[in-house]
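A quick aside before the break. I want you to see a complete sequence-to-structure record at least once, exactly as it would be stored in a machine-readable document. Don't worry about memorizing anything.
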Amino acid sequence: ITDIAGSSDYYHRGFVTYSNQAKHDMIGVDEQTLSDFGAVSEQVVCEMAKGALLTANADYAVSVSGIAGPGGGSEEKPVGLVWFGFAIKTPEGLRVVAKHCIFSGSREEVRAKSVIFSLKSILKEIINN
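That is the input. The structure line, written in tokens, reads:
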């Protein structure tokens, strides 16, 4: 996103909230939500996107939480599961959308596919807003 000169005109900040504590401290994810649903969940990415948007005073925000592997997966949440949250300011108010994918491949491939999916998805939201 920031490889293009002048990107500071549209990209103001980002948050790396790898730990649950960082999700809570930096973008206001409720500790109970993290406890009840886990970091890799629809509920958490929605709170992450909303919190990032409000903290950054932005018009759009994207959140990503997943299990890239090679370990860490379970039957309920397999390796490759990635949840995405998209928060969008609209004239009607704040809209939050969540999507998920299960990607195959190595850790690096899951992460790369997640970046591509999130960027394509937010671009669609921007175009349609």
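Two observations worth writing down. The helical segments are 20-27, 31-37, 42-56, 107-128. The mean pLDDT is 96. We'll return to this after the break.
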